Amino acid sequence: MIPTKTAVTATTTQSGNKTYRLDKETKRIMGFINGQAAMEQAVEILLETERYAYEIYDWSFGSQLHELMGLGVWEAELKAASYIREALLVDDRVVEVKDMQVKGQNNHLSVSFSVVTKEGVLEQEWEVSEVGIKVL
Predict the structure, then answer these.
(1) Domains of the chain with bracketed CATH
(2) How many CA atoms lie within 13 A of 7 on its CB side?
(3) How far apart, in whole angstroms, are the C-alpha atoms of residue 120 and residue 89?
(4) Mind giving me the DSSP string for the chain?
(5) What global pTM score does this model have?
(6) Is residue 69 scored above 90 in pLDDT?
């Protein structure tokens, strides 16, 4: 008997973006999340993690927003938008970062922007100050 070639059809399913839910108050993993909640958490982690500071991450992971601390408001305003875009566009689930507005006052920056992801659009507001970086 001679084997004959038959057509093989392969289908792939995308598992989404299921990940661990990190509870910031207790600093523990508390189950799983996916969809838009997972993207919100990913954006937060990408922006709050200092780029180049942790050997566990490659050099493209995290942001350089910490470098804005100590700069003059004008210079920090110029750099903030590009630092945020660079940090978020590393994630292949992020399609675009748009509607960026950066306002500097005294020793802090208020930044608002939209993150277009495969899961939907996330509206973000952040503050960068001498104290640190936080989501509003």
Answers:
(1) 19-135 (3.10.450.40)
(2) 1
(3) 15
(4) ---------------TT-EEEEETTTTEEEEEE-HHHHHHHHHHHHHHSBTTS-TTS-TTSSB-GGGGTTS-HHHHHHHHHHHHHHHHTTSTTEEEEEEEEEEEETTEEEEEEEEEETTEEEEEEEEEESS-EEE-
(5) 0.80
(6) no
